[in-house]
Write the structure tokens for this entry.
Amino acid sequence: MTENPTSLRGKVLSGLFWKVLENGGVQIVQFVISLILARMLGPERYGTIALLLVFIAIANVFIQSGFQTALIQKRQVDDLDYSSVFYLGLGVALLLYAVIFAGAPAVAAFYHDPELKSMLRVLALMIFFGAVVSVQTAMVSRKMEFRKMCAASLFATCLSGIAGVIGAYRSLGTWALVVQQLGTQFLLMVFLWVLVGWKPMRAFSFSRVKALFSYGWKLLCSSLLDTVYNNLYTMVIGRIYQKDVVGYYNRGNQFPQLIVNNLAASIQAVMLPAFSASQEDKERMKAMVRRSIVTSAFVIFPMMAGLIAVAKPLISIILTEKWLPCVPFLQIMCVAYAMWPIHIANLQAINALGRSDIFLKLEIIKKALGLAVLAVSIPFGIYAMVWLKASTDFVGTIINAYPNKKLLNYSFLEQWRDVFPALVLSVVMGAIVYSLQFFIHNNWILLIAQIGVGVLIYGGLAWIFKIESFRYLVGVVKGFQKR
């Protein structure tokens, strides 16, 4: 039996508000701290920590993917389910840490940097904290209590960021970044432990784990493929080029990622439980998927176009000119990240319908294509590698949307017709904003003018042409004001 539509809509909007606030607050704090650290430490230090975090991200897939989503998607969950996943996660974390600890010397030798061995061993302690956070996050998501996650994430990010800045000030170098990353996960675990108020039972059920695994293993494999693929570029760039190039690539990637993680990832976190609650009503679910795609595209498309246009003055002002080599990477990655609203909504719909088998097949197809493109692009240089990566993301939207033509009667062409108005307005706005650099040469004045003109043009065109998403968002804002 599905939940009352009005009640569900209220929970979705409330959850989305707190999730956006959480991601936005965390991202802003992290962004400010990263700017301070970037000025203090430079590109090479960031390149080093980026390489280390690749291995942590891959390890975390085994902890935080699959079972977490299975707990959210399952219709009825009790303490035994949570406790069983909790103990299993800690056991897997112990095994993974042993593998990383033993493999750290080989990683250091591969990248010709002996210091990486001890850094990786310390940073890998994050895996244990992630195992606990995974269960806590599933509980918060099922109840849509994103206010608790918001508070915990903000406090953890602020305190760990301060610790990182102090470490950099005291000349700890890359270790300051290790302290920041490790502190964030540890403090998040502690704050959620207090706010969620859950403690595991002294019980473990193999049958419960097996039932969750039957759904979650496909998602785990999909996440593993996705994580390895997304971090493969960092690994390859780090092996072929100097660490400062890795720093430029990752810093350029961070700017559009800041926006997308705050908006698209927030929509993803909130819409999975909402989609799951409506999985028996296909028409209603199609309407929700469409709303997710159209609204997020209306917001993200102009942000990506605008960021491409303001990239050079923005980097010059906030990171200084020594970071200007990251501008081309930033602009290319904006093109790639613009596709995420369509990616996420389609995949979450497939997850909510319990078709993790389709999800896995899609990931295998996309990653096989991506690996082939990467192999072909390496001889042509780093910019060819990144540009072709962006092009495969567009192809990925077609692949992700294909099953939903049958599952929800919502085809790729119909989806692109829905987002096309926002795309056209964004391109027009971006072109006008970019052209301002030919008339204004002071970076501060240029950046302020570009942002102001961009907002006025996009908002004005959306109002003039009565874009559906514009009217919808205005209605949502008015609804919140009446509360």
Notes: The mean pLDDT is 82.
